[in-house]
Amino acid sequence: MEPGKDRPRGMEGIALAAMLEQFNAHLAEKCAKAEETQVNRVRADVLAQCRAKAQARLRLDVDGLEGVREIIAEPAALYRGLRWVEVVPPEDFSIPEDWPAMADKISQHRQILAIVNRRGDARELAKRLPQAVHLSANLCGEHRSRLIRYIKWRLKKGCALCVVSTQLIEAGVDVDFPVVFRAFAGLDSIAQATGRCNREGKLPDGPGRVFVFNPPQPSPLGLLRKVENTAKELLCR
Question: The whole model's pTM is what?
């Protein structure tokens, strides 16, 4: 390996310092809550080694720069200010919620987007929300395009709006809702849903909220089911 090749350079080193600070706080919190078991001791050892390696990198000089320092006075405050979305997981990952109960929760919000994993689920939920705009691949392309234009128009005007959609709304559709309900799915899909919530950071009363819920049926078999199960395994730890 070339000398200095693994050293952090410029902004990479600064970003590493910020991430390490967050990692240390997260590690301390998790260790305080974890049970004293052999498995957790091994996990703590691995995390400690990762932290030590990152700290060793930070002690190296940054090639071509001297006196590297933060250019932002309070990075943590900036992070909090740019935290536009809060993700709310279900209280119990193993208990599904039925569609009537979900419809009651959704109907309490003036502007809301509900995203589900199956076209049949979108149909079942939309039937219980007469005011909802229903989007799925069961509609032809022209119909979907007209509905998306209508959704954007109502959002721009600040009108009350309820949308029930499959994942198609996560594929490059630029909409901005204050509240999103997302059926449990892979972490990438949940992240896509957060991109449809308070997208422009204009909510005056704090961050938008993404409520993740357990639908009556899990995702379809195959890749979608695998990533959903992996997400639950990671979040339940």
Answer: 0.68
